[in-house]
Amino acid sequence: MKRVAILISGGGSNMVSLAKSMTGDHPGRPCLVLSNVPSAGGLQKAADMGIPTEVVDHRDFKGDREAFESALISVIDTYEPDAIAMAGFMRILTPHFISHYAGKMLNIHPSLLPKYKGLHTHQRAIEAGDAEAGCSVHEVTAELDGGPVLGQARVPIVEGDTEDALASRVLVKEHLLYPAVLERFLNGEKGLLTL
Ligand code: NHR
Ligand code: GAR
Questions:
Q1: Which residue's CA is minimally distant from atom 3 of ligand 2?
Q2: Which residues are catalytic?
Q3: Which fold does the domain 108-195 belong to in CATH?
Q4: Which end of the chain is more exposed for a tag (fewer CB within 10 A), N or C?
Q5: pTM of the entire structure?
Q6: CA-proximal residue: ligand 2, atom 9 (nearest)
């Protein structure tokens, strides 16, 4: 069984969909849910599912990203994960962290990469007049939202769409896409999955 650590900063709906998928024949099991935000709603959801939780608050490190990441690494490594899934984790990671887990990290990003790396993806897609939006699961490399894309799902952008409406439409697809890509990743399958 592969041990999967999940990193969150917020409500953790993607974390829940990943954790629920890891049963039966699935090659992975959740070993840790870690948040950089102490009030993240996903922490209680993880505890309710019986998954160990940890908090490493970036604010304790006063802008020293390497010190924050060293603390993250020492907590995460206690759980000996084989893979790390970022699910709404909102801190940019430096090569210090990335190189420690090279080839083991996935992220879900709410855009059709390579479009709209970074933040405020839905607003940017609406403002650009795009006909569709979506989400991508990618390997995490030092280049922000720039690692190899392993899976994508698309949704239409409709007349009068708002950021919130589009975000919830995309989130439904995220909950299908991420578990499917994680399972393939743990099985060593490398092709692109499109939903
Ligand atoms: N780090 C690396 N090196 N590579 C990636 O691909 C990463 C990453 C860290 C996070 C998630 C990403 C997303 O899916 C992610 C991918 C946060 C920011 C950001 O600007 C940007 C992209 C992503 C996550 N964060 C601000 C910061 O200063 C803080 C914003 C906040 O706290 O609300 O770190 O979109
Ligand atoms: C998701 O839409 C995810 O794609 C996005 O944040 C949301 C987290 O929701 N991630 C990013 O924007 C990363 N910068 P969740 O906490 O309910 O999974």
A1: 88
A2: 109
A3: Rossmann fold (3.40.50)
A4: N
A5: 0.97
A6: 88
